[in-house]
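Render this sequence as a predicted structure.
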Amino acid sequence: MAGIRYSSWASGLRKSDIAEFLRNAKEPGILSLCPGVPYPDAYPTEKVAEVTSSLIKNNPEAIFPYGDPQGTLRIREAVAYRMKKRGVDVSPDNIVMTAGSQNAFDMVVRMIMDPGDTMIIEAPTFLGVLDSIKNWGFNLIEVPIDEDGIRTDVLKDTLTRLKSEGIHPKAIYIMSNYHNPAGIMISRERREELPRIAEEFDCFILEDDAYCELLYDDADQTPVKAFDNSDRVIYLGSFSKLVSPGFRVGWAVVPEELVATWNMCRPMFDVGSPSLNQEIIAELHVDNWLDSHIGKLIVGYRSRRDAMLGALDEYMPEGVSWTRAHGGFYSWVTTPENVDLDSLFKRAAKNKVMYFTGNFFYLDHEHHNHFRLCFSRPDEDVIVEAVKRIAAALKEEIAN
């Protein structure tokens, strides 16, 4: 049989070293700080079993036929409730349901961008989005982040320069709360500023807020969307971290015009998100059950976050710094510039511990002297031991 003639998009895909990472992380004896997934006891198994049985018995017509491409009304009402809790008053009519926030991003990008169009992304940024868009033929331009989120001064300078060159970016992709991988939050000042920038330069902001509500400290997590007065911010949310990633239920808050386009486009792709999963999550909102569940999740994740920060404080050598995440799943570690991160990773792997190196999160695939540690899944004692082993490898690397 002749070799397959791949599309230009498929031909441009890099080998999935991410999948290779995750396979290696599952080997016996490996302490893994790689995957950003909930810990096993975080899943509401008993409640979901109860709700699913009730839906099958009492309301089969809500879950078995094809669903509305925009999403069932009950789940959109539940999302409107969640958005109001986050500080954004939105109608269910402006909510579209998706298979997770990354699917929401992909759908919106398909509707507003063509090959050759320009998109601005953060540096670093979410590896899932980066891998999703980097072969679609877009002109991707990175803007750095700091401890207060995307550098709006650099963003304005970049947009001004591009405008002078006749280039008009269509979208700016940001993560507002508990950035993946950096673990930081955009400051209140920049949250207020970003919609004004989008209006001035006539572009959309795609705000990915998949970890919202998983807040462990006293911090302002009001979305950028709350400061949007001109429908420039398209908000992307998800139940993956609040209920289960396997359910694949996310959403986007979009302008009215995009809703109509969405309802035309969605049947061409996958008809719609699974009605059963949407209805299960809608049922979890009855009597505020999900709010109570999220409260328990916060206790479990905060304990794991504190274990990681305590271990970093105790074991990491001088000259190493890290973000002290107020929420979400990640801490972003910065090493001295002379540290060889490939060599460090090999030392850590010999110590039976794995994590994501920084190259996954940048367009140039260089490390930039960073690596990501995820504290969401392992128990506290595993987190402490894993950090201790990484610190030992780092001390050896610095000494050499």
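Summary. The chain has a mean pLDDT of 91. The two ends are 52 Å apart (CA to CA).
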